[in-house]
Amino acid sequence: MSxxxxxxxxxxxxxxxxxxxxxxxxxxxxxxxxxxxxxxxxFSTRYFERIEExxxxxxxxxANDIIYTYLSLSQNGWSDYIHSRxxxxxxxxxWKEKVNQKIxxxxxxxxxxxxxxxxxxxxxxxxxxxxxxxxxxxxxxxxNIASKFSLSILDLFKEFNTVLKTKxxxxxxxxxxxxxxxxxxxxxxxxYTAENxxxxxxxxxxxxxxxxxxEGALCIARAIKNIFV
Length: 229
Hints:
Strand 4 (114-118), helix 6 and strand 5 (152-154) form a beta-alpha-beta unit. A five-stranded parallel β-sheet has the order 2-1-3-4-5, sandwiched between helices. Helix 5 (92-109) packs parallel to helix 6. It is an alpha/beta fold and 229 residues long. The longest helix has 20 residues, at 129-148. It is globular and about 45 Å long. Helices cover 48% and strands 10% of the residues.
């Protein structure tokens, strides 16, 4: 029996440290850089035909929904990128309704698969009050959606909060898409290089406020294994 995990760049593992290295072969992992939760739904459904009935599917996304919403409100290295990707920034209520509609559609088409949602965990939120407020709003929406459809939920935010609530997390967040690429080329999946980058930025679970370092990867993998194993 396999568990299928569909997500964004955190799941793809190109930036920082790949959490899937700490999962065994029963976990099938696929991520798409820059994807919102709705885009993850759309991208993942092309794989559903090869997923057997009653197998478990985890959608581990939503980080970009928060980041795009937050960063689109000010001039920064992300503005042009975000605004070039049309229809990504909406109100939370509109986003919630679209997610509801998509999950309803997936459940209608694949009623025997077990779907899981995840709360959103960004280390950057722990060093930024405004970003944390957005995170709570999106996570409340996710929990409400999960309750509406009787879906199980991976509370990844709770796992991060357990580690970070006593830490003095900096307000660093990746300054542009280009900075992510520079980090990826510099770190190249090396645990020790990632740790040095995190330390230089005052971070504990990520290299850039978004993508996990080794401790962050272990935290995500541990949360996944705790709910599925």
